[in-house]
Amino acid sequence: MAKLAVNLITGRSxxxxxxxxxxxxxxxxxxxxxxxxxxxxxxxxxxxSDGDRVTLKSEFGSTEAKCVPADIPEGLAxxxxxxxxxxxxxxxxxxxxxxxxxHIQVEIHLAAEEPKTQGNPx
Amino acid sequence: MxxxxxxxxxxxxxxxxxxxxxEGGRITQAKNACVLGRAWFISHGKPPTLPVARINGxxxxxxxGVEAAARYLADARYPFIYGLSSTTCEAQRLSVALAxxxxxxxxxxxxxxxxxxxxxxxxxGEPTCTLGEVKNRADLVIYWGSNPAExxxxxxSRYAVTPKGMFVPEGRKGRTVVLVxxxxxxxxxxxxxxxxxxxxxxxxxxxxxQALVNGQKPDPAGVEGIGLTLDQLTRLAxxxxxxxxxxxxxxxxxxxxxxxxxxxxxxxxxVRALHRHTKxxxxxxxxxxxxxxxxxxxxxxxxxxxxVNFSLGYxxxxxxxxxxxxxxxxxxxxxxxxxxxxxxxxxPGQAARRLAEIPTIALDTHESETTRIxxxxxxxxxxxxxxxxxxxxxxxxxIRLRKxxxxxxxxxxxxxxxxxxxxxxxxxx
Lengths: 122, 429
Prior knowledge:
Oligomer: heterodimer
Shape of chain B: globular
Number of strands of chain A: 6
Structural class of chain A: alpha/beta
Distance between the termini of chain B: 51 Å
Strand order of the largest sheet of chain B: 5-4-17-16-15-6-7-13-14
Order of helices and strands of chain A: EHHEHEEEHE
Number of helices of chain A: 4
Shape of chain A: globular
Number of helices of chain B: 17
Distance between the termini of chain A: 31 Å
Helix content of chain B: 25-40%
Strand content of chain B: 15-25%
Strand content of chain A: 25-35%
Largest interface: A-B, 47 and 65 residues
Helix content of chain A: 10-25%
Number of strands of chain B: 19
Radius of gyration of chain B: 22 Å
């Protein structure tokens, strides 16, 4: 199974911001926070297609997401803030109070099975 | 009914020019609001569906909820109050009083937003200004590690770029906009210059700029691997020194990347160095509607902007120890009071899981990941729609929220006041 190593950046997105108000149980918010953006070159190299379910692993945990191509440099990936990407972030803050929410080393491969809910209880 | 000059308290812009239409007891329009503001007004202006209080998911009265929550907090050895970024300064003040009474910790969303900017301010000072000064004076606008098109959609059009100002009569044409980021975000469309930097290299770029502004020439080898050439940095430094009034808006691209408060301190020191050449200021792009307010309230009450501990009877400040990600991530806190925030959806996985293990009490206007796991969940009304109050805009300007709809739910302030009274009684026993 092809694996891809990327540098993950998390941040805000418009759909994620709307979902904060309209409801986090809504499909739009779940889609917004359960999607990882990759460069087309990285997706081709790893054999991923637009919309594939992928498993993401960091040293702190794992989660699943849908992958989509985006205008982003090779080696980088982006996910909107949410419970899904938080599984990949450690709680160590290096005496700052701020977790490393960007610049996270993540390994990605195609998910072996149907999407499963990762992260926090509903 | 239409109400004008209503404040949208969703993000740190706190736009106070919204015209809200109320029909049939709900908000149907929010003129002038951005896409995030419209969603906030329309969603929070709907008729209620949740019980006022729940214990383990079962509906109870407000009094029963207060009794259960007060007992959890009074019995805890390390109670932790967190959130507060989307409530009023009046509710924040009561939260500080409760933390002091409990001898617990109080931290706010600042710690996972611009806490590193706050630490840098303590270290090197903050050369800043108001958004009014930006509108009226800035001919160079730099966003660094910020994506205002998605996080603060009216920041560009209302405050920083598009509007005509006293000394910038041409508006957009009179300003140069630079975006520095690791990816080409939608904000790049609003920029004249987009500089793509490699993640984790902000400190190196800011330090090299400071050297250039101070008349030194960095070693080209020293800037290799940051994504920008020495030539690009030199041109940016010259642009900064040449402008009449520059503003550097910094985002979480600086605060959440390794280096954190060193990155933000480097940005502050760059702006300080620029004052030898021109007028320049810096402003953190604060996220939530009153996250700047909680820094101010905690500052007045304790002397510190976040991460405050009262266990010795007086306030102590220690990011990395009294901050939410650390205290929950290390399983230290044994009860949590979450006010107007959703840490289960926003803190790292380990810290979020801790909240499900301990008695968590949540006050929120709607169902969230945190209210779902809370032992006691209160539904409160929305500040700025159902109740008045004070919030602070990202430039630390206080703004009074208006009430446009009645609500059957109590305000955060009322629930906190009741908790304060009951905890005081329990502690006296």
